[in-house]
């Protein structure tokens, strides 16, 4: 499918590529309009695969103050499906009588060049999150980005700084703060219902077993494989490295370390975010980490951690134990404990009195709304989202320093202010990832 030309905007792709001035953030484009009570936030969706098609797009299409105006994907089959769903949904609404359709793009840079798009939903694979998010914010767009946000701690810091400097609204797209049991538990913990916390425990499902080496295959005609790979290392195409053809099944890229770190960051971005939120350390991190883990015994295509057991300690003395198990978060304090299980979603505690406790008006309260509602409200009010870029980065980096500790071995000190390992040059080398040309950091620096 060919990308649709931008007739209403004089900034074409080539001009857009020349517009940036490096990561020291230059003045950004002015948003298309100031938001009023009846104004719609215009959203462009970049990446319309499994998560976007089944979850993100449907939620945004159901919001009266949002209009998806453009979709983008390097897979033309997925792109065409997304365009059809958007147009079918809006075509049925009488309030959209003047609706003229949804634009479709094969290149995300063309979508970002449009001044009439206020925000983007970034649902691309993990290896594309940061380059697209940074480019979007520097082009004046607010960003909701799928978790886990990054593949390295250094790029996470870069992204969080751009969001702050450019004064863009950013929402880490995790729904766990919008699940009632987790939200309730954090309010109880933050308001002292179990006393001073001393221990937290989190668990995530085990990763899939390894995949045998795969043969090189012809690239599907609907896929721009070069653009899909982007900043990741280039390897011959094989289906289990990317995603099922003309299907929305669980993609193989989630099991390949070039494009995803696996469950340690994938589900960890959900459960450990809740732990840090409850511990009031969502904008910092621990001071030490140690861990063990195992990769697939047979070297094959899928090479993420199968299982792990990680221990963290914070400056306030709280310890966090994170391992492959089942999805849960547990807070243990001097006066009791609270645990939240994901499936089925249930909150339990050491006493019924804790669970029945009322959060009074003068105590700590957090807004309760869906992640998409939180994002759109922040776009309209220009306020902070409940899980902004700094919070999302700190959650992802917490998981990543655990993964680094497994690779290096032994107990490591961590400086959460400088975001470095003070006494391990070997560990510090793993704070960065290499980016393939033309998507190296130097190249992106020149472009954006």
Write up this protein.
The chain has 448 residues and is an alpha/beta fold. It is 32% helix and 17% strand. It has 15 helices and 14 strands. Strand 1 (41-46), helix 2 (50-61) and strand 2 (66-72) form a beta-alpha-beta unit. Helix 7 packs parallel to helix 10 (268-278) and helix 10 crosses helix 13.
Q: What are the defining features of this structure?
A:
single chain, 448 residues, alpha/beta, Rossmann fold, 6-stranded parallel sheet, 15 helices, 14 strands, disordered N terminus
Q: Please identify the top-level CATH class of the domain at 13-176 and 443-447.
A: Alpha Beta
Output the radius of gyration.
22 Å
CATH topology of the domain at 13-176 and 443-447: Rossmann fold
**Rounded average pLDDT:** 90
Give the ordered list of helices and strands: HEHEHEHEHEHEHEHHHEEEEEEHHHEHH
Shape designation: globular
What's the number of extended β-strand segments? 14
Overall helicity: 25-40%
Strand content: 15-25%
Low-confidence stretches: 1-38
**Strand line-up across the major sheet:** 13-12-11-7-10-9-8-14
Oligomer: single chain
How would you classify the helix and strand content by structural class? Answer: alpha/beta
CATH architecture of the domain at 13-176 and 443-447: 3-Layer(aba) Sandwich
User: How many distinct helices?
Assistant: 15
The fourth-level CATH homologous superfamily of the domain at 13-176 and 443-447 is NAD(P)-binding Rossmann-like Domain
- Sheet with the most strands? 8 strands, mixed
The span between the termini is: 26 Å
């Amino acid at each position: 499918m060919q990308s649709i030309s931008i007739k209403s905007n004089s900034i074409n792709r080539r001009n857009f590529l020349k517009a940036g001035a490096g990561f020291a953030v230059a003045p950004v484009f002015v948003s298309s309009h100031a938001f009023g009570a009846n104004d719609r936030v215009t959203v462009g969706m970049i990446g319309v695969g499994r998560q976007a098609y089944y979850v993100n797009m449907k939620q945004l299409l159901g919001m009266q103050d949002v209009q998806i105006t453009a979709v983008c994907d390097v897979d033309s089959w997925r792109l065409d499906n997304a365009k059809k769903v958007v147009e079918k949904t809006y075509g049925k609404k009488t309030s959209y009588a003047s609706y003229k359709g949804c634009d479709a793009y094969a290149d995300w840079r063309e979508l970002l060049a449009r001044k009439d798009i206020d925000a983007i939903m970034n649902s691309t694979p993990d290896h594309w999150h940061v380059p697209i998010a940074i480019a979007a914010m520097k082009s004046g767009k607010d960003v909701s980005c799928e978790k886990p946000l990054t593949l390295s701690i250094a790029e996470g810091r870069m992204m969080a700084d751009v969001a702050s400097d450019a004064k863009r609204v950013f929402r880490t797209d995790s729904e766990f703060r919008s699940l009632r049991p987790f939200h309730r538990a954090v309010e109880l913990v933050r308001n002292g219902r179990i006393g001073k916390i001393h221990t937290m425990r989190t668990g995530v499902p085990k990763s899939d077993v390894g995949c045998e080496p795969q043969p090189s295959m012809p690239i599907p005609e609907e896929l721009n494989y070069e653009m899909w790979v982007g900043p990741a290392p280039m390897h011959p195409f094989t289906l289990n490295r990317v995603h099922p053809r003309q299907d929305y099944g669980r993609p193989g890229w989630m099991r390949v370390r070039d494009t995803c770190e696996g469950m340690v960051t994938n589900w960890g971005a959900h459960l450990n975010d809740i732990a840090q939120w409850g511990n009031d350390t969502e904008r910092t991190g621990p001071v030490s980490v140690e861990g063990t883990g195992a990769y697939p015994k047979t070297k094959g295509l899928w090479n993420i951690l199968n299982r792990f057991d990680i221990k963290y300690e914070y400056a306030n003395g709280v310890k966090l134990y994170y391992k492959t198990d089942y999805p849960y978060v547990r807070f243990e304090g001097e006066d009791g404990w609270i645990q939240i299980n994901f499936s089925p979603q249930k909150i339990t505690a050491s006493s019924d009195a804790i669970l029945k406790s009322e959060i009074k008006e003068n105590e700590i309260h957090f807004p309760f709304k869906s992640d998409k509602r939180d994002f759109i409200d922040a776009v309209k009010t220009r306020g902070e989202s409940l899980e902004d870029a700094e919070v999302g980065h700190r959650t992802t980096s917490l998981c990543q320093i655990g993964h680094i500790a497994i690779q290096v071995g032994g107990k490591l000190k961590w400086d959460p202010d400088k975001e470095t390992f003070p006494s391990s040059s070997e560990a510090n080398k793993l704070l960065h990832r290499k980016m393939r040309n033309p998507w190296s950091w130097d190249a992106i620096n020149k472009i954006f």
